[in-house]
TrEMBL record:
InterPro entries cross-referenced by the UniProt entry: RNA_ligase_dom_REL/Rnl2
Gene3D superfamilies: DNA ligase/mRNA capping enzyme
Chain ranges of the RNA ligase domain: 48-231
Name listed for the protein in its UniProt record: RNA ligase domain-containing protein
Length: 351
């Protein structure tokens, strides 16, 4: 069966769910909740987040099960890849030729145990022909590891940054420039959010990943990056007690993107008195949530489904308008639910 990689929220949505989880009472744990922290112990009040470069490509994962290092399951975000006829941006063609067993050996050597039930390697396939508007499109297609899970526990990628097969165009984003912030979720976060945005702008203006490669003239490949993914790690800054804990079975992370790659059209505004006419609130939500990037993602979804079914790639086929609108609507509500609820827009009216 396909094993999905968890989605990565933006900071606003992550913070809203996180703060809610800080105040969750034991009797609330079984209550229905849409946030990602439901049914878990309360998270630390303070935590450290390491930011790695977010690469603009297509998600891919490699899954090894029951100690078998020689028969991996190669996946796109939505389906299992078994051949090049129903490939996703050349993911299967790239990964099926690599000696992936040696990659698992590298991981297990650091882990300190050669036995495993599951090794889950998450990354991004990117490079020529995958996306547009970023410096890495000048590179030959590659796979970059950004997270690893062993037997249900996500590892600290700083300890696994040497894992990769560069001779087979399999890299590791943890080897490249990284950032770090401490966040106290009981305090105002405007200052740390501004610092994260400054780091994100730095990546957006000049991708530190692509800059380590050279073109045919021997010059560094320069250009835009997409953004940063911030992942919680253990640190002295973190507060843990019997009521709060760092949970490595849960990938606690969020993303910040450069302006061109944001799926929202405007930064969230401070809460204000809403127009009593519901239509005005809906307009505010749509103006905020629907940027060109989200529409592009809808086309990419359609093209991915066509690839999965072995059909010719034609994401702009007018016959797919209904499927396109359905995906954009569902993705917008899923990703921007907190803003929708803040504006007081019922889901049925948002649709």
């Amino acid at each position: 069966a396909h094993i999905a990689y968890p989605s990565t929220p933006n900071f606003q949505n992550f913070k809203a769910d996180y703060v809610h989880a800080l105040d969750r009472r034991p009797e609330d744990e079984d209550a229905e909740s849409s946030d990602v922290f439901a049914s878990r112990k309360r998270p630390p009040t303070r935590a450290t987040f390491v930011g790695t470069v977010k690469l603009h490509g297509t998600n891919a994962t490699i899954v090894f099960n029951d100690g078998d290092k020689h028969h991996p399951q190669i996946q796109s975000r939505s389906w299992i890849l078994t051949d090049t006829k129903k490939d996703n941006c050349g993911t299967y063609a790239l990964l099926s030729k690599a000696p992936l067993a040696s990659l698992v050996d590298q991981i297990l050597a650091i882990h300190g145990d050669t036995t495993f039930r599951e090794v889950f390697i998450a990354g991004e396939v990117a490079g020529k022909g995958v996306q547009k508007g970023v410096a890495i499109t000048a590179l030959e297609r590659f796979f970059a590891i950004f997270n690893i899970r062993i037997d249900g526990r996500w590892v600290d990628m700083r300890q696994y940054k040497t894992c990769g097969l560069p001779d087979h165009r399999i890299y590791n984003v943890a080897q490249y420039k990284a950032f770090e912030v401490d966040i106290d979720f009981r305090q105002p976060t405007a200052e740390v959010h501004e610092r994260m945005n400054q780091y994100t702008t730095e990546v957006y203006d000049k991708c530190p990943f692509s800059a380590t490669f050279v073109d045919g003239r021997g010059q560094p490949i320069s250009g835009r990056g997409e953004g940063i993914v911030w992942t919680m790690v253990r640190s002295p800054f973190m507060d843990e007690d019997e009521d709060r804990e760092f949970d490595d079975t849960f990938l606690c992370n969020f993303k910040t993107k450069g302006e061109q790659f944001s799926a929202t059209a405007n930064a969230p505004k401070e809460p204000k008195v809403l127009n009593p006419v519901l239509a005005d609130a809906v307009v505010q939500f749509v103006d905020y949530a629907l940027a060109e990037r989200r529409l592009e993602q809808g086309i990419e979804y359609l093209e991915g489904e066509q690839a999965r079914e072995g059909k010719p790639i034609a994401g702009f086929n007018i016959k797919l308008t209904g499927a396109f609108m359905k995906w954009v609507t569902e993705d917008t509500i899923k990703e921007e639910r907190n803003e929708m609820e803040r504006l007081g827009v019922p889901e049925k009216d948002a649709k």
